[in-house]
Amino acid sequence: MAVLDTDLDHIFPSSVLPPFWAKLVVGLVAIVCFARSYDGDFVFDDSEAIVNNKDLQAETPLGDLWHHDFWGSRLSSNTSHKSYRPLTVLTFRINYYLSGGFHPVGFHVVNILLHGGISVLMVDVFSVLFGGLQYTSKGRRLHLAPRASLLAALLFAVHPVHTECVAGVVGRADLLCALFFLLSFLGYCKAFRESNKEGTYSSTFWVLLSIFLGAVAMLCKEQGITVLGLNAVFDILVIGKFNVLEIVQKVLHKDKSLESLSMLRNGGLLFRMTLLTSGGAGMLYVRWRIMGTGPPAFTEVDNPASFADSMLVRAINYNYYYSLNAWLLLCPWWLCFDWSMGCIPLIKSVSDWRVIALAALWFCLIGLICQALCSEDGHKRRILTLGLGFLVIPFLPASNLFFRVGFVVAERVLYLPSVGYCVLLTFGFGALSKHTKKKKLIAAVVLGILLINMLRCVVRSGQWRSEEQLFRSALSVCPLNAKVHYNIGKNLADKGNQTAAIRYYREAVRLNPKYVHAMNNLGNILKERNELQEAEELLSLAVRIQPDFAAAWMNLGIVQNSLKRFEAAEQSYRMAIKHRRKYPDCYYNLGRLYADLNRHVDALNAWRNATVLKPEHSLAWNNMIILLDNTGNLAQAEAVGREALELIPNDHSLMFSLANVLGKSQKYKESEALFLKAIKANPNAASYHGNLDV
């Protein structure tokens, strides 16, 4: 049994649970922590990635998933987010098919079960990290650290920072990535199950399978490729027993035995490193080719530090972000769905007191690294090395070191790094227990952490059940975040509370004077309240700040049309279409403008464009029928009406308009049948009954 396990004897008695029951307990605890989110709504990013993503629907060919990003846009598009996760989207599509539509319960249940399964798998992973790799004569791995692996798995299962991944449906990308990441790591461990005649370990099949599982993890989320780096570290430092302290000493003393290091002559190790390097390079090459037009374009509000002119300012802020991520792992009490837009003000000089945080982070990290690489205790080296490996390596894609990322802090990216945190925390408890007599106090602290984290998971899962609760929970954490105020305002506007929505939109614009989406939404509400002058000012400012903001151009055109400034309105509509060529709603509004100006042919052409781009655009079809009816083109109106009803057979407004045309054409029986059908679909429409009587 591992030394660490003996140190934890006071927390878990000697009659510790066997592996099966330990896994069952961990799985149940993991599910209970987040079960409250099972009947939650689609919230925040779920709307774009799921509800508005056509890749989930049967009409979209399955092959398109391999050419689209996570949000359903073509990867070749300049506006694509470049997040390539086709396997995650495929699971969403299966969920949609099995649920019979966008019913969130099925989506949430899958996420909760995935977290439970990953937590169960963590028992085996932690068993390797703490107990090492030892096998029976039959090839079964021995569980040499049952207490340590159970404690670490429980700490992982109940960590509140996982709430975003589990309770938010889009977090499935992180869950699936973690699942295949861990399977890849465990598969790589199996490569050392048997020894060959030379005493070295090698199994090409398991190494190749591990690389394949790493590729699968990357197709769930880009972070998955980092498992290859972790496997390499595991192989060199743990399997190869590469001792940095010993090497340094030999270099300093010019020891000739350095040339005959067994690791350098280990053909099996070099072969495995070649396979891992080739696999990683191949995956990166394919990923880059698929990306198409290069990396995504992010804005300053997404990641302000990356746009700082000074390299020193960028470095300080990046390190401060790392310290915040570490704090979220240590004390996951202040959690927020979004940390951008002023939530974390930039550090602009070394005199800022927050520099202390990054100094503390590096003090701890350097101390741990020195112990991990230079300790004479091989058991301690292995645990600290793998703990730091799991903590740092999966976090690298989010670190801004290799490329700019589109966020400041994101709780979801800590799902895998939290494995390393749980290793280090468990090791710390073991070390404390070994050097203190107050073992019951340590046991109470461990139990307290588990219970508090479970309670926090339950509370946080409840906040993720609806957008209103989620957005309002962020106010106390990030009151300076303009996006928080924007989202609360949007949620209130959707519920019809325009007065309150205006207040939050104004605060969002105050906090971020360049927040064009807040200006656009605020301008829309003011337009509906007939406060047209201020609406025009806001929308004009939005398009000056972001000239390619098509929606703001269209809304500006609607306001200018209401102000009878027809030429300006037409120009605004044209600008919107210039920046978004496939914009059916804008063509519809342009058609209304032409109709007001009695430019009937232009109006019909605009509405026809709208229906070509969006065949189910009921308003455009209806306006075409009515305009043709009013201008006496009954035959053409009838033809358009029949065409529209073939595409949208259950639209009662189209039935009503076509019934009117048929009545004027003296086709009374058919007209009466359509009126009755429209009334059946919408019995409270007085005009339907009145026209039927006529």
UniProtKB/TrEMBL annotation:
Entry's localization field: Endoplasmic reticulum; Membrane
InterPro entries in UniProt: O-mannosyl-transferase_TMTC (IPR052346), TMTC_DUF1736 (IPR013618), TPR-like_helical_dom_sf (IPR011990), TPR_rpt (IPR019734)
Gene3D superfamilies the record matches: Tetratricopeptide repeat domain (1.25.40.10)
Record key words, sorted: Endoplasmic reticulum, Membrane, Repeat, TPR repeat, Transferase, Transmembrane, Transmembrane helix
Enzyme kind, highest EC tier: transferase
Placement of TPR repeats on the sequence: 482-515, 516-549, 550-583, 584-617
Chief location bin: endoplasmic reticulum
Enzyme Commission no: 2.4.1.109
A single GO molecular function term of this UniProt record: dolichyl-phosphate-mannose-protein mannosyltransferase activity
Protein name, per record: dolichyl-phosphate-mannose--protein mannosyltransferase
Transmembrane segments: 20-38, 112-132, 169-189, 201-219, 225-248, 269-288, 355-374, 386-407, 413-432, 441-462
Membrane topology: Multi-pass membrane protein
Organism of origin: Macaca mulatta
GO cellular component: endoplasmic reticulum; membrane
Pathway(s) the chain acts in: Protein modification; protein glycosylation
Protein family: Belongs to the TMTC family.
Signal peptide limits: none
Occurrences of domain DUF1736 (ranges): 294-366
